[in-house]
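Help! Submission page says 'invalid entity' but I think these are all valid:
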Amino acid sequence: MAADLSGIVIAPPTPWARISGFYRKLRRLPIIPVTLLGLVVFAGIFAPWIAPHDPEKGELGERNIPPAWGSGEKSLKNVVERLSINERATSVTLKDAREIDPNAQVGDQIEVFTKPEGTTKFLLGTDHLGRDVFSRVVYGARISLIVSLITLAVGGSIGVVMGLAAGWYAGFIDEFLMRLVDIKLAIPLILIALVLVITLGQSLWIIVTVLCLFIWPRFARQVRGEVLQLKHMDYVSLAKVSGASTARILFIHIFPGTINTLIVVATLQVGIVILLESTLSFLGAGVPPPTPAWGSMVSDGRDKLAGGVWWISTFPGVAIMLTVMSLNLFGDWLRDKLDPRLRQLE
Amino acid sequence: MQKYLARRFVLAFVTLLSVSLIIFIMSRVSGDPRHIYLDDYSTQEDWDRMGEVLGLDKPYYQQYGLFLKGAVRGDFGESVREGRPVTEVVLERAPATLLLGSVAFALSLLIGIPLGILSAVKRGTFMDVFGKTVALVGQSAPPFWLGIMLMFFFAVELGILPPYGKQDWNSIVLPAVTLGWYYAAANLRLVRSAMLDVLDSEYIKLARAKGVSSRTIILKHAFRNALIPPLTFAGVTLGALVTGSLVVETVFAWPGLGRLAIEALFAFDYPLLQGVVITFTLLYVTAAFVVDVLYAYVDPRIRYA
């Protein structure tokens, strides 16, 4: 006899359970990484409208100003008519003193900033040449975007074509291409890249070309693996039987099957390209100054640290880190969504 | 096994050869080397004699042959900047890089592996979150910036470690941590994911069912098999540590090969640059080869494939 279940009522989920369930679903989405990436892309595209100052020109009188929340240092100085060099630490001229206090007289003592105070005019402070750090970070996003998108398009296409050819033709072509990949993995590429950029000249195009050398093998390898699996599928044989050309089979029938993997690889590779580009810039072989690239900005602030001027290096570095971090997190999420075979246990 | 090793060996050889070719072409593309050696006061005779000494009167392929012949004997000519044989300068700087590289490598293992195991075993706990954070920061923060931040915090603000140079024993701490962090992060991720994979396998469940203690399971059964992925990665790590030193040595003014390479590059001292690049490649290739051999030794599937 079946148990009598008529009296049992399933309680509807409480509002709290609904909220926490919704929250749990929300947490699985990469909201923070996508937001951050959105910000970077937005900053890159709309840089001229966002940046409050010219990123390449500064006032030397406004150099090394700390971020808006930074406090300066004041000290009492004597007001004198004329200033000799060894009096600089203790005195100011009447002219400078009048700018602070119009009633200043020779012989007075006046409070003067020895280290400037942060102002809202320069949100993240200014660098050693008086350029606005915030504007430079915003424009730096543009350089990173341009470099990584072009590199991805060119390097990725080369890699895809190589991978398609290697997977489809097998034999000698495959062997040759895959050995090329091995060699690429076995040489200190960053050093070679440096030599190339310095010898051939620092320009955006040479840097992009060099970066392409870095990224095509990853694409080639991945696509080759996919092609090896796909080429034995029935629909490929059917296409062959119906007389499709090799190019048609490769690009119309096989290539779309690799797109999911490609999106994942591309996302993760952009992070690598951004890191590499900033490393080259840092070492002095990036997009030439005064163009604001994140890497060279970090390098600019390096020898100012000892004087307590930390903001020149810190902010562009934070920008690089957050961008790369978001790309990694977003890439991991995409991989789990699009290509569960590659999933690692989390 | 022998076939595998032979292939690897040939590959290493071809790699060295192609790097030497690239660097030779670069040194010729950049202009006639005599422009660096000779000044405006030298005569046409000097110019010609110099050309003979350097072999510049011969066709390019013969010049490359001469360069290779010298390189095999460890003779890269004379450094323009230092006026001494390149080999001498390189050998002088090599120990500092090897020291930095080995300390950083040791750090990456000592931090990456235990943290990886802990965050896999204590999945979802504070330990796991901590491990993931270390890994995420290590893989996303550019080493040159990380180095500068560590320098600012520990050397400038706290003043407990020397900011740069190589004097006392503690001057290696900051560069080694900077260099090792990235690879520690990579090792951590690899060990964690391999460990989770292994812990989920049937033979671990059997061991648990038998009543084997957790400690024995983790250390004896799981850990050994979880070590294979990081080992594969070690070849890449060792090689990349060498290049990583390029950046870290520049940041911390560490007197090693990386800094030498940058100095030679910006001084257009091509003989020295050739010597350093070839040395780097040699280190890189040797490390990769050693790891390949080790790998074949540890994983029989490779040996008999």
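Support: the input was valid. A stray whitespace character was the problem, and the output above is from the cleaned input. Chain B touches chain A through 50 residues (CB under 8 Å).
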